[in-house]
Amino acid sequence: MRYRGRAMIRRSRCVCLAVLPLAGLIAACTVDREFQPGPQHLTANLRGIAPGAAGAPDSLLVVSYNIQYGERLADALADLRAGGLDRPDILLLQEMTPAGVETLAAALRLNYVYQPASVHPHHQQPFGNAVLSRWPILAQRLLVLPHAQPWTGQRRVAVACDLDVAGQPLRAISLHLATPVVSAERRLAQAAAVLDSLVAGWHGPVVLGGDFNTAMTSEVAAVRRYYRRAGRLLPARLPPGCTIRWQPGRLVDAGCRLDHLFLRGLQAGASGITRDATASDHFPIWVRTGRPVPGASG
């Protein structure tokens, strides 16, 4: 089932409250327009770290964390440890550099796949997504999302990895949708492209998460409604409240749910938002799931 124009949003349009500071606009002019995301930029350690236990796990701990510009890695590691999230089965990261992913993967003893989407003007370094896993990574896929940033051509990506969880296949997907400089309709089309390209046709369990930049409550509802209907993906029921720290120049509505985790073929258990984290403007979000079931697809 593919995305059809305005099917994911109501015809009554809402005004997006997100704004960009002037400094951000000036910095955006220095984007490296020559950079094209693709598998040639992949950084990975696919099978180098064996899982801690040979048998099937009773549960899986899944964490997603947008670490702002991939900086403050020591603080990010401390955030994960303080929240009891430093032994995840799957860790989905956004806004990362290659060196940052390698550092966290080594510290947490996780396999990983990393794909940059652009060279970011903030630090002139690769800027992208990663999937880190306690379990062997058998294969990976990259999706370059449609609808580049209109002024700079900057792209966003989704990264998918097929994991071997004690003999059971599971697909884990880390995504980062465009900021509200791109229209809500086009950001929802990006979310639909992830479903069409990386979930449709995969018959095993799925973990999908990251920064959706759903600044408005209506956008959150639209993504959840579409993912449930078209992909049988159910959202992890995070506690009420924001997944980001409010900052001047970033205005969102009362929901401020930019970050999400979705599951298929896995039973969701406890979940949370680690709001005392300090390394980023986003908070780590997490869910504990039941074990993968052979042949489960929703």
Folded structure, characterized:
This protein has 298 residues and is α+β, with helices and mostly antiparallel strands. The longest helix has 16 residues, at 184-199. The strands form two sheets. Strands 1-4-5-3-2-13-12 form a seven-stranded mixed β-sheet, covered by helices on one side. The protein contains five helices and 13 strands. It has one domain (57-290): Deoxyribonuclease I, Chain A.
- Helix percentage range: 10-25%
Strand-residue fraction? 25-35%
Q: Which parts are unreliable, with pLDDT below 50 for 5 consecutive residues or more?
A: 3-28
Spatial extent as radius of gyration:
18 Å
CATH superfamily: Endonuclease/exonuclease/phosphatase
- The tally of beta strands, per DSSP, is 13
User: How many domains make up the coordinates?
Assistant: 1
Give a short synopsis of this structure:
This protein has one domain: Deoxyribonuclease I, Chain A (4-Layer Sandwich), CATH 3.60.10.10.
